Amino acid sequence: MQIIVERLALLAEKIRIQTEIDSYRVFHGRGRTFPGLEFVTVDFFQPAILVTLFVEPPEQWLDELIVQIHPLFASSNSVLVVQHRYMPNAPSEIVWGELPDLIYARRGNSLFNLHLAQQQNSGFFLDMESGRQWIEQHAADKRVLNLFAYTCAFSVVAINAGAEKVVNVDMSSAALNLGRANHQLNNLAKSKSEFVAENILKSWSRVKKPGPYDLVIIDPPSYQKGSFIAEKDYAKVIRRLPELMPTGGLVLACLNAPELSEGFLKQQFVEQCPHTEFIERVRPHADFPDIDPEQQLKLLVYRVPPSAA
């Protein structure tokens, strides 16, 4: 517990001296680099401190943590939210403070709408920061296809980095509505983005129509019954790449499934799109250490040559 208290003490000092703080993971226990704390993560979305418990903690553990950290934030307007992910519907409780009606993830000059304490996922994945940085470096002047776009954070980053246009595809209209709101929040030109609410595996003609694309982002759920199961469905996306980008381009293939290895994803490319060239695995963000790289978020970069079309 002491390491969490120490990390939060550093956060409290940041709050004291900085007006605006980028959202970040304060403590990552899930990577098993802190024995005995595998069940907890701590995130900061100013002014909210989000403690997520993935299994029920030891008796009195949470009470003791609250007693130790509350004085650190007594003079700030911080809010402590605890999410019990191990319980049905992942309920959240506000331990102290008042959660604003509108709360955002901050990334530099960009803001992203959040729905803390309302559902399991906040609407912004901090562990994908390495992917956002990669997009920032490669999106300029590109026509980008953002598959499984969710709330379209990749799109906001790509447009800010100079993308010609981003087409966001997700089967959830509600998620894409949040994506539109994120674009409006960041004052992005409407002409730079398009939102397609379709089941990707059943609507390739509509996905293909706004193309061709120079850069494709694949960021699916690892297991979403009835819509996408990575182990059997990822291949169906990869085999479509040549027709989506007939003049070639780059692919950022994401896989957030600890049970599936980097080798699994590479094999899908070998079998489904053999002309692609593996470029690199993007290094996971330092805020998310893990004793086993195969358990971490996989971000693989491939080049699709024009000849693959």
Automatic annotation (TrEMBL):
BP GO annotations = methylation
Q: Which UniProt keywords apply?
A: Methyltransferase, rRNA processing, S-adenosyl-L-methionine, Transferase
What Enzyme Commission number does this protein have? 2.1.1.191
- Any idea which GO molecular function terms this record carries? methyltransferase activity
Q: Which residues form the S-adenosylmethionine-dependent methyltransferase domain?
A: 25-303
Q: What class of enzyme is it?
A: transferase
Write down the CDD domains for this protein, in alphabetical order. AdoMet_MTases
Name used for this protein in its record: 23S rRNA (Cytosine1962-C5)-methyltransferase
Q: Which organism is it from?
A: Cellvibrio fibrivorans
